[in-house]
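User:
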Amino acid sequence: MAPNLEPLFSARARLLKASDVRELLKYSQDPTVISFGGGLPSPEAFPVEDLRVIFEELLHEDNTPALQYGPTPGDPLLKNALATMLASRGIPAKADQIIVTHGAQQALELFGRVFLDPGDIAMVTQPTYLGIFTALSIYQPTYHGVPTDNEGILPDVLEENLQALAMDRIQPKFLYIVPTFHNPTGVTTSLRRRRALVDLAAEYEIPIIEDDPYYDVRFEGDPVPPIASLDKEGWVIYLGSFSKVLAPGFRVGFAHGPADLMGKMALAKQGVDLFTNGFGQRVAERYLSLGLMKKHLPRIRKLYRRKRDVMLATMKETWPDNAEWTRPLGGLFLWATVDPTIDTKALLPRAAQKGVIYVAGHGFYAGQPEVNHMRLNFSFPSDPNIRKGIGILGEALREEKGAPPLLVPMAK
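Assistant: Predicted structure:
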């Protein structure tokens, strides 16, 4: 009989909870299930031939340095390449102000380690990327949600909240935001509102954590400058990742910010993993410095635009008239709002029985959720599965309301 270790777990360990998305990822390996759940890139988007060339080069280098231990803040070659990349986005980056992490997710966890004591306020958008709750849960923050609309976060509401907190002598530790192709909604925060955020950060001395993993996955419209590129006083910490433009399996992300913060994060990281995957870092460096990422991005953008368009067209054809959804100009997700009487979490088992899964909107909220939303990923499923799965969800929504089945043939 296996020992019962539960009584020995720490109070902090008891705070750990499974992520809704991580629980659904097991379905992505089941060919009988159409998954709109995880944020998986399409296998078609992996630059396999480029990687083959890079692997050969790295494995034939003298002493194979890519396989050796490396410095905790990151491989110097990659940090220099990242500084150049960020400069192209208008961010005056310095290599010594960059830390390379095991995906941007680890950077979020490190922020919790260096910023948060129990009860401290972490400000987030409403809704927000649910991984922030997983990353920070053991540090026991108090979350303060700031509403959003189709132009992104509402700076006026944020300012009112900051004023109210200041009157009570409460200093939030940071504001976390995904401003470009927001996860989960797909919305991009406007330039006007980004400028307002920079002004508020300086006025109220609140760091902004700008999580920007989808910056290069724009397939429509003009780029909007990162918030960090507008910041002249150093209040914006910029996060990025190679998961969406190279491959998530390498687990290479990064953060750029004030030197003292990066130093503290490096110290915190030492106790966790010593350093980030050295081989993956060298692969990412070659991918950047050889211009392979720039060459590959048009393929990714074309692929994901087509998949988005297939999903949008099928929703228009097969979903109830009172359903609404966002139309993202990039990224991997769109956000659907269904009849207000439908709880998408309660609907999920019915959809799963029909062979389709998604992420119910509940987990993306700090506090009381709005229950009639769902996040749909369009990057991973094949085009035929997008058509089939979206049609099945349309049927499930009609059944939930007792509506008659769709009379027109479903998209093929």
